[in-house]
Amino acid sequence: MSPTSKNITPSCIEMIERLVSFDTTSHKENIQLIHFAADFLQGLGAETRLTWDESRRKANLFATIGPSGLPGIVLSGHTDVVPVDGQDWDGDPFDVVRRDDRLFGRGTADMKSFIAICLALAPEFAARPLALPIHFAFSYDEEVGCIGVRRLISDLGSLSVRPKLCIVGEPTEMQVIIGHKGKKNVLCHVHGKECHSALNDRGVNAVEIAADMVAFMRSLQKRIREQGPFDHGYDPPYSTVHTGTIHGGTALNIVPASCSFEFEIRNLPNHDSEALMAEIRGHAQDLVPEMLMIDGATGIMFDEYNTTSGLDTGEDDEAALLARHLSGANGPAGRVSFTTEAGLFHAAGIPAVVCGPGSIAQAHKPNEFIELSQVAQGEAFIRRLLDHMTRT
């Protein structure tokens, strides 16, 4: 029988309310929340360590409860949330409202409820004779490119014993996810040559060159959509190439000297995004010679400013088997098209899965909410983990 809201420990709700009250929008600091969590866990005897960004206004927290010198299990979540600017909320997004068996507030689904459940049950981990350590990994700036967790993972290299596996609590409605797409973010800048539009044969139109590039990527997407590779565990079942922004030109009668556009590649784990980038770069190189004939200072430049690994954990991997056991799942694990920090843990040699309360369909929206039944299922999952680690 699935847990209901009657099974929720009051401290879980209180912790959700407390964490949501911290405005940790990605362009703001998260240090108040991190200090709160670190102080709370230190009070239970946890060993804690922080890794900082350059401003020291943001930090990751890695905390451990249990025996040292043994490979433990990581419970991982990001502390940042997306902006509420321009969204039509019924109330204060950072003040949790309970209504119709739902908790409304920014981050309730994505993903402070998971972090809150972990913290609320941490005293029980501290009180048990754990056979393995439990690690809590709370990161910054996931929403803007999984930035903070990279420093946290790098810092784990200094540990004498690395964790054995990681569970990332992104909202999956407590379904175990063993695969997700990778993501590459790229800024392309076209340097053209400005001139009067009546003499456009003497200039290099950066907007038109950029448009050619975008059209090429559209044709690349069409080929992938029709020819694959495919993995029908994903929706859509192929890699995607998408242009999101474009800026260029100053006036209609001026041949534009500059145009920039951003695009992304969301690749299946077994579809090399570097190979797709090589095709895009190759097309750019085909355009450059004609540009250089007009002006030697023209060209096309790419800035691959963020790349996040895909996740491809095997069905029989220990992380997948454990998560399925804890969730009570009978069927095969799933796959999703959005990207998480799990791919980075996995790429660093720490097998990872994604499983957490709430629905991704509620994330990033005004009046974001989580069902209380999901909180109950999340708590039941962590309690089963506690029992597992006690008797292991």
- Give the percentage of residues in beta strands: 15-25%
Cα shape:
elongated
Which structural class fits the helix and strand makeup?
A: alpha+beta
Residue-averaged pLDDT? 96
End-to-end C-alpha gap: 25 Å
Q: Work out the helicity level.
A: 25-40%
Q: Give the strand order, joined by hyphens, for the main sheet.
A: 1-2-6-3-7-17
CA radius of gyration is: 24 Å
SSE run: HHEEEEEHEHEEEEHEEEHEEHEHEEH
Give the total of beta strands: 18
What summary fits the major beta sheet? 6 strands, mixed
> What are the low-pLDDT stretches, counting only 5+ consecutive residues below 50?
none
Number of H/I helices = 9
Notable characteristics:
392 residues; alpha+beta; six-stranded mixed sheet; four-stranded antiparallel sheet; 18 strands; 34% helix; elongated
Notes on the protein architecture:
By secondary structure, the protein is α+β, with helices and mostly antiparallel strands. It contains nine helices and 18 strands. Strand 4 (97-99) and strand 5 (102-104) form a beta hairpin. Helix 5 (206-227) packs antiparallel against helix 6 (273-294).
Summary, kept brief:
The chain has 392 residues and is α+β, with helices and mostly antiparallel strands. The protein is 34% helix and 24% strand.
